[in-house]
Amino acid sequence: MEKIVQLLESKGIRPTAMRLMTYKRLAELEVAISLGDLEKDFKISERSTLFRTMKTFEDKGIVHQIEDGTGVLKYALCEENCECEVGNDLHLHFHCSNCDETVCLTEHKIPQINLPEGYITEDINLVVKGVCEKCSRQSD
């Protein structure tokens, strides 16, 4: 837990109990999670507190949002030293049509995209959809 405290403090975040529990839960997951699903993990938390925690984490570069085409925003922890900016540290996401989980494929970076003059990039999100490794092994 001390490592999480140090990480949060290094990002200028006061390590409250909710922030520590939220970070710990996100670190345990291997998939992205929606705010609603995360809320189910914390029965005694208020939705607004959890939302503010996630917003703080996103603003400080601890998590990033993923729009995976399901209509529900999901969150995942950023890699260490991630800047989560257009042109920096952008990676693929994979959404499984079988189990409905979304994962970060951090080793697969999105290449720099040069738009025509006059166009301004605000966000890039590349989601590959199909069947994940776990589900494809189950069908064997």
From TrEMBL:
Keyword DNA damage: no
Record-level Gene Ontology MF annotations: DNA-binding transcription factor activity; transcription cis-regulatory region binding; zinc ion binding
Keywords: Metal-binding, Zinc
Binding site for Zn(2+): C96, C99, C132, C135
Transmembrane segments: none
InterPro entries: FUR, WH-like_DNA-bd_sf, WH_DNA-bd_sf
Identification of the protein by name: Zinc uptake regulation protein ZUR
